[in-house]
């Protein structure tokens, strides 16, 4: 190890051990930088090689102009990569395919190997098939193994075939919670060098690690693969938003209420592509669990990261979660030596400033389809009554006594449906009252009840966002205890589930004696995984599902997750609300959103009406149980042999060898097509001529709209493919579980049941107009794309604002590319999806400020020519290109933002770029 051009290499003594460190104070200007940029600066100092990272890059970061528009490119080399199985399986498929491509081009296939630690946690595959019984967990795990045996065998092969690749088996926990509780180092010690832990992940909520001071964010799977193979991540030095926290949270509010407030504020402010960093005296008032909750929801703000510097609270958490004393001592000494220790009295320089008094936070929900649409709990009933009228077709029933209630104008923004191209289906004359459609239902066991709009069909304590937080989890269990003691239980139409982010949660529930109360009201353990938050809700009871669909009922879901996008949670549920775990239970007891939950009785108990205030636990009681029920030994025991797995995992038969033996009959894992016919040198970039529009979309189209993760609907191209290959409907599993099979995923691209393609009128789902056929009839998007491909016709997608928001899933870009889409023209992009498109060789173009498809008169029926793209062949990046569409001509911006991204695009994608470089070496 040698000093770089700044002479920054020195020694750090901690206890009896000496570490090499790259001193930040060797670079003039470093002291004024925010914490996050100091971490980036150390990364550049340590990786300076005179080529990818130069002294000029280091000076550019040290002399950062906080107010400037990002323009300076740097190369960031993350210390490690973390994955979950939905996004991780295609990563391993790609790596296995790359090995064969290297062999075919005359290279050594074993060179395709992670160069830095790569860890995968299997957490996305368990589905809530069974609930409400003590056997639910074991039965769900059994089904999970039966359905996913091929995938798990493949991952076990990967664990043996690749160095530096480890797999945390199913049933352990959710990736981000396992990360902060066990995998995160905070400060690395590798080969005698100490440096900040940095980590990118194949899940957008990788940012949960920001809560413990680890800089990282979600990237597409292909970008993560490149990082594993030693390829630095090209990025512009970002703007950093300083978010000052003051005061303390009031009694009765939770971390969920806080994070929904922050989400609303930051979405309104605009932080896409920016870092957010928290500072101020209020940070000390936040337990680490609350910081992790905030970090987790960074993608919901739109920011790249949402980070908290290291302080005593960080060390306390590391100690609690079983990190050894030597590691904790290193974290403290390194952070203080390098100026990375939080000093509340010092205000770093930021690009923009926001402030929140924690004392102003109120109990809240968010919904019905976006995390940023916060609703004060006091206004939840009125806003539901307003918003539901965008989801019902039935004629309005008589307004009840609430018909004269006023609707808040500002607390919850009116639902914005032009994002997916829809319009309100029915609004009554005065905009108040509520629709009724009462439907009698009788279950198999003889239970009878009536369903109506607004009834809660799903109540799920799910997602690492909140289940990692013992305060809200203990609060939920105490509320359950108080409810049981008053004689309450869930309503019979509510599908309830408890899916903690780690086994530690059930350990402290057991120690506190709270598990029986959760079981009593139907919140039995169903699995350790993401479940409902990613759409693995499982089916509703058949009688309920039939009643909902036959009568077009707008039933609701209440979940403690981070995402509530349309079509994500359940195909039967139209309106989805994010809430704290205690509120999830409260709404399961009430059974409806059409309730003033703060003032109306939630249910009738053994001694009369029961109000929420009667069962809401006192903060002091919650804190006391958290302190007495959670111990270091729980974490030590849970993670003692975390990669070993149970007998089911260890008993899987796996192939051996450096190259994977593909099974042509597999419907889960197939050799990827990205390197088919690839030459040693790339073809020149070409302009696009004669393109047709595959889809014309509105604002806020998410990666869930583009590539759904949930159930595969019978009658769709993906379902037909599976049935043609002998898969029974009951074994379809989910799109997410089949991401290792490109044939399924291409057919599932743009297949979300709530997608609204504006080429069609009043049609939801994966459909378009097929201009290869006379009259341009309605067709499945996949079928139309195949017809265009047969004619050699390139495709484009038109979109509005925030295109590709939500999950980091690379299949939203992979599927787009494999359908034959050459370019997307949108008003704006979310960061990860734009990057993913480039990584797959799809050109992201952006309408000029003030322009849109509508303002330019584009209907999507035009034929498009895009010229000027060939400017990329000259080594630079054209700032704009010309688009011609049936006589209209206009300019659009090229959203290839860095030279590194331009290299990826010229090579047809990031993996092709990496592969060619490896061959050259």
UniProtKB/TrEMBL annotation:
It comes from the Bacteria. The keyword Isomerase does not apply. Residues 64-591 form the Aconitase/3-isopropylmalate dehydratase large subunit alpha/beta/alpha domain. It is an enzyme of class 4 (lyase). Keywords: Iron, Iron-sulfur, Lyase, Metal-binding, RNA-binding, Tricarboxylic acid cycle. GO terms for biological process: propionate metabolic process, methylcitrate cycle; tricarboxylic acid cycle. Pathway: Carbohydrate metabolism; tricarboxylic acid cycle; isocitrate from oxaloacetate: step 2/2. This is Aconitate hydratase A. The lineage of its organism: Bacteria, Bacillati, Actinomycetota, Actinomycetes, Streptosporangiales.
